[in-house]
Amino acid sequence: MKGPKLWIGAGVVGLYVLAAILAPWIAPHDPLAQDVVAALQGPSAAHLLGTDELGRDQLSRILMAARIDLPVAALATLLPCLLGTALGVICGYFGGWFDAIVMRISDLLQAFPMYILMIVLVFSLGPGVRSLLISFTAVGWVVYARLVRAEVLRIRQTEYVTAAITAGFGAPRVIVRHVLPNTLRQTLIYLTSDLVFAVTALAAFSFLGFGIQQPTPEWGSMIAAAQPYITTQALLTVVPGLVITVLALGFALLGDALQERKRA
Amino acid sequence: MSALKIKGLSLVRADGVTLVDNVDLALAPGETLGIVGESGSGKSLTLRAILGILPAGITATGEIACTARTAMVFQEPATALNPTMRAGDLVARVWRRHHPGRSKADALTAATELFEQVGIDRAADRLRAWPHELSGGMRQRVMIAAALAAEPEVLLCDEPTTALDVRVQAQILDLLRDLVARRSMAMIFVSHDLAVVASVSERLLVMRRGEVVETGVLTEVLAAPAHEYTAELLAANLGRRLKSESRESRESRESSESLGSVTR
Ligand SMILES: Nc1ncnc2c1ncn2[C@@H]1O[C@H](COP(=O)(O)OP(=O)(O)OP(=O)(O)O)[C@@H](O)[C@H]1O
Ligand SMILES: [Mg+2]
């Protein structure tokens, strides 16, 4: 456990998680409270990051948005990861017609650019967290399934799996105790870098109006709402943008560090 | 009566190549049989056929009658232990699998005893060790403990000492000799090294290119090899080492036999 990447990455992510947990107590104002008279103000003692077009406290909204963006981004990687791992294990361990079908479907999905597929799905399902998660899962499982399948094919050949089978353990036991735990490291590395994608994609979809809707505070939609005022109150777009970038960077560093540790 | 009987076993690859050709083999309870042969002669496949774990694409014909409980010790201690399972956990799990209805505490006690039996000192501490924390020799001892946890009547050893240095190799061979005698377990010991096989076996079976070229009582085969390939192996192995080891094992066996007859 060494190297600055790991610590900086973990520190950044930890800070965001902490902010999300503590947001209701440390946010100076109600993130939804409007004060049209005090709209579009620059930073002041009362509003450290100023106010938005409806006079809501920008800092409070940024903080509270962490409570939306973080869990939704986490789910948007976790759900595809779970689905992909389950399919990958079954395909890799048992093979056969099920494997063939799943691999055909994943070939098909991978023939399209991921973003386009997701946009089409979200567009047809309608805006909102639910349809975002459905489309992330429907598209994102493919990489996990392939990754886990390849790992399982390798692990199934190892002597410790043969030993477990000859010791009389059935397939479910062998999979849960001997195969799955040994795929986790590889999955975790990919999952961390997938979080980078989820954070930015979530913000992008919300920016485009397909994700989390106003007035709920969310970084992407905050940027979208502040767009008309970019020349007068640039901070309103710059700060949420920075917040997203730094978080994505944190996950990227973490993923890098895990990858390097694996090689070492 | 035999614990294991193989008649006319042939293993054929999908492309029609015969890997093991018409092998006959019988093992009496408590007997130790050594299988020796060059790399690729089909020793491992024969053992796998006995356990019913042939690799995909290889079909077996012939008869395998095995009434005895079997367990296997593998060649590579580096890959024969699940890296994500503690050594004691592995042994305890196998033990519980073969003692249904017994508690986890019983299994832990049994694992500790097995660790002691295979000569792992500080057994209680070592139960919690991860495989990567153990030396090659220790791992092989853990493998043997896990095999014993199934209380086998026949122990199959596939080159269990090949990956170890000479000193540790001698210790493991001693251990196996001792365990087989104490538990009156039958054993098939496979190696490409005639000297190693000779040190633990009463009977010898020589394989070459998938065929049995010679079989008989070890001392007789060594004294007067009937097949030129056996003679070649013997010549290659000749040197002080083989002579001293086979004499030593003969003496120790003779002394234990005379002891046995006294108690009987
Ligand atoms: N999974 C497999 N598929 C196809 N051929 C195989 C497979 N496993 C082994 N073989 C072939 O079968 C033959 C016998 O292999 P086996 O592993 O039994 O040899 P061995 O006597 O154990 O050799 P070694 O001393 O190297 O372990 C070899 O020619 C090998 O190439
Ligand atoms: Mg072999």
Automatic annotation (TrEMBL), chain A:
Entry's transmembrane regions: 7-27, 72-96, 108-126, 132-148, 187-210, 230-254
InterPro entries per the UniProt record, alphabetical: BP-dependent_transpt_permease (IPR050366), MetI-like (IPR000515), MetI-like_sf (IPR035906), OppC_N (IPR025966)
Coiled coil segments of this chain: none
Record Pfam families: BPD_transp_1 (PF00528), OppC_N (PF12911)
Localization in the cell: Cell membrane
All residue ranges annotated as the ABC transmembrane type-1 domain in the record: 66-255
An annotated GO cellular component: plasma membrane
Signal peptide residues on this chain, from the entry's feature table: none
GO biological processes: transmembrane transport
Keywords: Cell membrane, Membrane, Transmembrane, Transmembrane helix, Transport
CDD domains: TM_PBP2
Membrane topology: Multi-pass membrane protein
Alphabetized PANTHER family for the sequence: D,D-DIPEPTIDE TRANSPORT SYSTEM PERMEASE PROTEIN DDPC-RELATED, OLIGOPEPTIDE TRANSPORT SYSTEM PERMEASE PROTEIN APPC
Record-stated family: Belongs to the binding-protein-dependent transport system permease family.
Protein's name in the database: Peptide/nickel transport system permease protein
Source organism per UniProt: Actinoplanes lutulentus
From TrEMBL, chain B:
Region (Disordered): 243-264
Presence of the UniProt keyword Membrane in the record: yes
InterPro entries: AAA+_ATPase (IPR003593), ABC_Ni/Peptide_Import (IPR050388), ABC_transporter-like_ATP-bd (IPR003439), ABC_transporter-like_CS (IPR017871), P-loop_NTPase (IPR027417)
Record's keyword terms, sorted: ATP-binding, Cell membrane, Membrane, Nucleotide-binding, Transport
TM ranges: none
GO cellular component terms given for this protein: plasma membrane
UniProt cross-references to Pfam families, sorted A to Z: ABC_tran (PF00005)
Entry annotated with the keyword Lipid biosynthesis: no
Domain ABC transporter: 4-234
Listed Basic and acidic residues bias regions: 243-256
Domain of life of the source: Bacteria
GO molecular function: ATP binding; ATP hydrolysis activity
Localization of this protein: Cell membrane
Family: Belongs to the ABC transporter superfamily.
Protein name: Peptide/nickel transport system ATP-binding protein
Species lineage: Bacteria, Bacillati, Actinomycetota, Actinomycetes, Micromonosporales
